Amino acid sequence: KRELLLTLKNEKGITLDGKKILTYANIGDSKDLAAVLQNGAEGIGLFRSEFLYLEKDTYPTEEEQFRVYKTVAETMAGKRVIIRTLDIGADKQADYFQLKKEENPAMGYRAIRICLTRTEVFKTQLRALLRASVYGKLAVMYPMITSVKEVKKIKQIVEEVKEELKQEGLEFGDMEQGIMIETPAAAVISDLLAEEVDFFSIGTNDLTQYMLAIDRQNQELDEFFDAHHRAVLRLIYQTVQNAHRAGIWCGICGELGGDLALTQLFAAMGVDELSVSPGNILPVRKAIRETDTGKIREEQLKKWL
Ligand code: PEP
Ligand code: MG
């Protein structure tokens, strides 16, 4: 079976009626790069940069980060690599950040909220990313966005960083900038957010947690956790439609993206990219190639939404 799948390694995810859906990889460590290549990923859709921070007992320097991002960009040789900026807090803690203990960490001081208030930490990462983007097709993606105001602020900081690099005579490249849609607020205002960025990537793990108000870590709630809840699937569809109306692309990088029961639905919705763990790339690609969106569209939308 694995041999059969491997014949798809150099193929693309194109539906029977000719619609292309990119199959990208999620990685949480540069050690995962071998698996990305072995499974023929067309790019990296989610590079969880937290590991750079979690494996150390002090902040990773600009140079350390630059080297890692440059290696990934070069290894992927012109294929798109989407690096998510620091998503720490909640379940991911590093002592040297000295974050206060919180009653509700999942709804607390985490991810972009830390970056927008500790801008030196954020700027160090942005500098490393911009400099590394000279060596490949890097894109940057921001987690836990809830408002247009945050995105405007981020873009302003990116412009400041570029200006600083220019002043210092350091070379930097162009990066697409996208956001994760992983809060219900972001999904609901995705029409407005789409005007500000180059792409969306839907983080279904957090989106489901916040939409259903069910802690994603609490296994005792499993019986209430419906990964296929219509509320979540409808929100995904609205987000894809809002992205396309504004002329940007929209992918999915949460676990749901690799759920083969939903591949036909996502194709019917017009999702542009599915970013999944390396082992899921070829099965998802196979499912895409067996789908005729023209035929199943109405039926799939009716069944799930
Ligand atoms: C998500 O929330 O769906 C996601 C991809 O990010 P993480 O699982 O790292 O929170
Ligand atoms: Mg998330």
TrEMBL record:
<keyword id="KW-0813">Transport</keyword>
<protein>
    <recommendedName>
        <fullName>Phosphoenolpyruvate-protein phosphotransferase</fullName>
        <ecNumber>2.7.3.9</ecNumber>
    </recommendedName>
</protein>
<keyword id="KW-0762">Sugar transport</keyword>
<dbReference type="GO" id="GO:0008965">
    <property type="term" value="F:phosphoenolpyruvate-protein phosphotransferase activity"/>
</dbReference>
<keyword id="KW-0460">Magnesium</keyword>
<feature type="domain" description="PEP-utilising enzyme C-terminal">
    <location>
        <begin position="8"/>
        <end position="292"/>
    </location>
</feature>
<keyword id="KW-0963">Cytoplasm</keyword>
<comment type="function">
    <text>General (non sugar-specific) component of the phosphoenolpyruvate-dependent sugar phosphotransferase system (sugar PTS). This major carbohydrate active-transport system catalyzes the phosphorylation of incoming sugar substrates concomitantly with their translocation across the cell membrane. Enzyme I transfers the phosphoryl group from phosphoenolpyruvate (PEP) to the phosphoryl carrier protein (HPr).</text>
</comment>
<comment type="similarity">
    <text>Belongs to the PEP-utilizing enzyme family.</text>
</comment>
<keyword id="KW-0418">Kinase</keyword>
<keyword id="KW-0598">Phosphotransferase system</keyword>
<keyword id="KW-0479">Metal-binding</keyword>
<keyword id="KW-0808">Transferase</keyword>
